[in-house]
Amino acid sequence: MGTINSAFSLISGALDADQSALSIVANNVANANTPGYTTETPNWQENSPVEINGVPYGDGVTETGATSRRDSVLEERLDQQQQLASASSVRMTALDNVQALFTPDSGSSSSRAGDIGSDITSFFNSFASLEANPTDNSLREEVLSSATTLAGDISNAAASLNSQSSGLGQEAAGVTSQVNSLTGAIAQLNQQIQSISPDADAGTLEDQRNEDVSQLSQLIGINQISTGNNGLALTTTSGQLLVSEGSSFQLTTGTVNGATDFFLGGTDITSQLASGGGELGGYLTARDQDIPSALNSLDQLAYGISTSVNQLNNAGTDLDGVTGTAASPLNIFNEPTQVAGSAASMSVVMTDPNQIAAAGLGQGTGDDSNAIAMANLANESLLQPVATTSFSMTQNLSSATPLNGTTSGSVQIYDSLGKSYNATVTYTKEGANTWGYSISVPDTLTADTRVANQVRYSFGPGETVDPGTNLTITGSAGGGTATIVAPVVVPGEAVGSAGPPATGYVAALDAQLTAAGIIGVTVTNTGGVLTISGATATAGSVIADPVASANATGTLTFNGSGALISPAANVSGITFGGLSDGASTMNLDWGLFAANGAANINQTAAASAQSAQSQNGSAGVNNGETPTDFYSNFVSTLGATVSGVQAENTAQNASVTQLQTQNNALSSVNLNDEAAAMSTLQSSYQAASQVFAMLNTIMASALNLGEQTTVS
Amino acid sequence: MRVDPSYVTNLVGSLDQAQANEQQLTAELSSGVSITSLSQNPVASGENVLLLNQIQQDDSFTQSSNLVTGQLQVADSTLGSVVSQLTQAISLATSANNGTMNSSDVKSIGNQISGILDEVESLANTSYQGVYIFAGGQTSATPFATSTATGTSPAVTTYSGDEDVNYLETPNGQKIQLNVPGDQIFLGSGSKSVFGALNSLVADYSSGTVNTTQAVSDTQALSTALGYVSQQRVTIDNSITQLTAASDAVTSDQTQLTSAQTNLMQADVAQVSTQLSLSETQQTALEDVISQLDSTSNSLFSKLQP
């Protein structure tokens, strides 16, 4: 009987196991189309055998539960590739919008509308036409009208780029709420998984978590780190923590310099996010790299055309016999003060066509020599301040200098607004053949103007101050000195805005000086220029402008014959940021191994308002390109960028598809497999139930001792 | 390895791509333009800017050249008239100088030459579209005036223009002279001055008595001046010839450039049509595959007996 009972137990166990496995199959089939669902397979476990008289007898099988069929390495790889693909996809869409502003002119008159290349040609052609009859009013009108078209198309393109840029910022900001909700959900799932299944796969909970991580990967570049108890930590690709166990950290946005920036725990991580991938990375790359690069080209073009044309028009004689002067210039275009923003602000300021100076200086008004010169601008490189400027400096490091002795040299450098600073390199003798160096940019700006006993620094109209970190004013106050930090500028407020001293920024600054008891410093506002001045006779420095960056330091090592052996190459990447007037960060290279044997400080990557000549550097002109060549190169470069991103996106999508295929092959529900499994399990169930029926008969027969009686 | 059960998703992706491709090709066919965005062919887009720039420069030069040709032709025909007026004056003066005429005839010739002087002055003050063509750069004011003050004999014709010479620059940088300053034509130094000779002759014949030596000398001077005017006219004629040649060269250049630009930008209809047809075939094939694969009768479940 015991054996028959064992057989019953064995077979009913088999029926249970089959039933349970069939439920798993049914669950798989039901979830075949559930996003993120990972197919589950039953786990069969052999029951411990029973030993009778030393002979082991099998005790059947148990189905112990389902295991999700997943490959976490593959899933992570898929997520990583997804980040790249969605970044390039978003960037591609943004670039498509950018290139739509510069649709190629097919040559027909309708396709010419809005084409900057044609505008440039038409504008310079209008001067060529003027050669034929310099006094003709309609030809002069044509010059102004083509100038208006050119300026309008360039400024429209710049305005569209600016609006696309802010649109991308908004879209990127919209992504953050999705990111935050997903990181929140992942943190919650982490908690559930850790409490329910710390040691094994958590099935659908893990499916959900993986699905959320996969969605998050499309939005933002992340790294995944498995933690104890089946937990998961997520960081951005640059390492900032987004999810740790059961906690998530919210991504926030804020406005910095008019653009939306992204913060995590108070740290601005915008630039890291841009290179991180995901939609956010794509939006930010397009906003912070692609659009600024296109805008910069347009700015250079607008700056070059405006300044060159204005300069030449002021060098000729107009139809009324007048020549432009500094006080009353004959400008055709709004004269730009710096490259940045030139395209957006490009406009025609001349209204009287008679003011076009077609005639040469001192010539009759019917002369056309200046018109020829202006038409020829089409074939010349345009005036352009250069971004890279070299400043020479020489310093003798004497071997006779005692240990810890110092010597220093300085050179005047310029910020992006053309303000001058004295960069100082201080050398300290640290050993027989070693010198420490420290490159500093002084707190005190080189004064704009230096009159008797006074130092002045002027903020022009439209210049902004970043006073929270920068502009401080120190002066005599009651026997000692006191320092104030200049008041914060209301967004949109121009520091040097016109108005009586009693109002606006001037009044606020004045009130603060009075409150601190500082004497000897005065604030005035004349002609829209704010001037802060103080007599040097007063104790303490008058106007300080701390540069936010620390000094660049290092060590120079020479060999026995005085040749520099370390550093082995030029020192690059020296930056000084946080300048008071809102100037861009200064980027410097220290050319220790300059060709002429003297170390040069090279200023790079910051366009300056100062003309190249006044920066003691070589004159650079638009890379030697004519306006048309420049525009042609611009469209080629833009087209190549877009095409490159398209190719990249295609490749990445193909790679995603491939990984997805691999992952699906492993993890998604294959209905044919399930049908086969179901059929097998059904057969097995059927077989087990037949055995069960037979056992039942045997059992009845045993109970009745072979007689056909009531128990059957 | 197992097969990806979601193959239909991939096929739908391919179908989307085929459709996008068809849209692009259809757009090319309908617009006739093969490059509708920079990224389609960045190099050609840049090249296109340069070609269009040259084409438009050529076009602009052709227009300017038409305008200027008119002015130069007016100058030429004006100088032609001046030559015939001067020839007539020389003939009148020669007849007056042969000593056979009476006083009133001589006066009459003086009057006729005076009329010719007025006529030549008026020709020298010719304007074309509001521009005095013999005034150098001072094109807005009448360049020549003859003093009518009493007691001045012979009268003096003065020039208020300047010595400016204007040029038209061709797209390849050649400069074509557009004008000859009036004083160079009509007020040449010494015996080359047209107005000097004419004014002297008028004075010679005004009294009716001829100082033959003086009159012959003045007539001789007018002949010299006439030769000089003809020389200056050659400059104008040369400009017209140069302009015509330049204009022809530019037109031919423009034709070549336009053809290059068309090749660059225009869609090749035959090629695009073939591509479109291929793409359509691909789309149909994909649709068929999808409909077959996605059919529920393909599932193993449908084969299972209830």
Keyword list:
heterodimer, A: 712 residues, alpha+beta, 5-stranded antiparallel beta sheet, 4-stranded antiparallel beta sheet, 12 helices, 27 strands, B: 306 residues, mainly alpha, f41 fragment of flagellin, N-terminal domain, two-stranded antiparallel ribbon, two-stranded antiparallel sheet, 8 helices, 67% helix, 5% strand
Characterization of the model:
The complex is a heterodimer of chains A (712) and B (306). With 712 residues, chain A is an alpha+beta fold. Chain A starts with a helix and ends in a 9-residue tail after the last helix. Among the domains of chain A are: 103 residues; 227 residues, no CATH class. About 6% of the residues of chain A have low confidence. In chain A, strands 13-14-15-23-24 form a 5-stranded antiparallel sheet, with no helix packed on it. A 4-stranded antiparallel sheet of chain A has the order 5-6-7-8. Chain A has a 4-stranded antiparallel sheet with strand order 12-27-26-25, with no helix packed on it. In chain A, 41% of the residues lie in helices and 21% in strands. Chain A is built from 12 helices and 27 strands. In chain A, helix 2 packs parallel to helix 6, helix 5 runs antiparallel to helix 6 and helix 6 packs parallel to helix 8. With 306 residues, chain B is mostly helical. Chain B has a domain of 203 residues: f41 fragment of flagellin, N-terminal domain (Up-down Bundle), CATH 1.20.1330.10. Chain B is built from 8 helices and 6 strands. In chain B, the strands form 3 sheets. Chain B has a two-stranded antiparallel sheet with strand order 1-2. In chain B, helix 2 packs parallel to helix 5 and helix 2 packs antiparallel against helix 6.
